[in-house]
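Something for you to look into today, if you have time. I want to see for myself how the chain folds. Leave the record below and I will have a look.
***
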Amino acid sequence: PPPVESKLPFKELENQWPSEAIPPGSRGRDEVTEEFMDLAKVRGPWRRPPKKRHEDLVAPISPELSPPQPLFRPRSEFEEMTILYDIWNGGIDEEDIRFLCVTYERLLQQDNGMDWLNDTLWVYHPSTSLSSAKKKKRDDGIREHVTGCARSEGFYTIDKKDKLRYLNSSRASTDEPPTDTQGMSIPAQPHASTRAGSERRSEQRRLLSSFTGSCDSDLLKFNQLKFRKKKLKFCKSHIHDWGLFAMEPIAADEMVIEYVGQNIRQVIADMREKRYEDEGIGSSYMFRVDHDTIIDATKCGNFARFINHSCNPNCYAKVITVESQKKIVIYSKQHINVNEEITYDYKFPIEDVKIPCLCGSENCRGTLN
């Protein structure tokens, strides 16, 4: 049968039990309860460990600190009046105009308004306080090199403003009045006419054109060449190794370039020619001026030594005398276009050992000698 639930307390039920139902030597409920409570007092209460929340695991390392609130001291009466009347010195800006307009509208909305407001109208006026443009601070310190060394950086590009600054500083230094040995400034004298370079060149050309009618000398042309050099460049040539090319149109019978080198005697030229052959220098850069003088441009010369030979050249060489010194100058034989190679006839003497010619012209002789 199902058990019958009793609503009596445990103490009364225990008293109603028969003595035969309680085994001998067993302890009562009160003794067991007292023993359990004593043991709990010694060990302490047992509690389930609390679970750690996700917020505690991912909590920030340092707490967020709110910025401190700024504290401003109250202004004095003098400071208030200074700020109020600052408009007479610094003017008013857009913010001041906006707040003045708001104040004017509020005064109009008041019932006990002043009489002068009825005769006053608001008219917009631009601000009178214009802030000056901030000048960029120029860094005059040492330049920082990315690679750590100035030599490995190459060339730095100079800004146009920096160039103008250097130019102005140089002009300022030249404009300073000269001083004598005692430190006294010498009164400035009127400067000579400082005309532009283009004006000087045009005057030079006018003088040359007037002289050519009466005096057609090579010395005058040589001075013209020194005054304005032709634009030339050297690069790879289809004739032989390197060649000289024109970077501007050159008219006929004009001086192109001077053949520059060391003036040596015939004996020295023979010794150098043998030494150059031993060193492996196959090209000859020696140009004969006369029976005793030879110009050697092998290791000391200019672009003229790159001019190649051609059996149908567009230039020719001519010896002129300048201040009792003979010079070799290359003249244009015909009109030379831009990027056209400059050539002339070497006119080597006839020898048994032939040097092949690679000019490729229509009337090529086949050999240089």
User: Anything to note?
Assistant: The longest helix spans residues 94-109. Residues 263-301 form one domain. The radius of gyration is 54 Å.
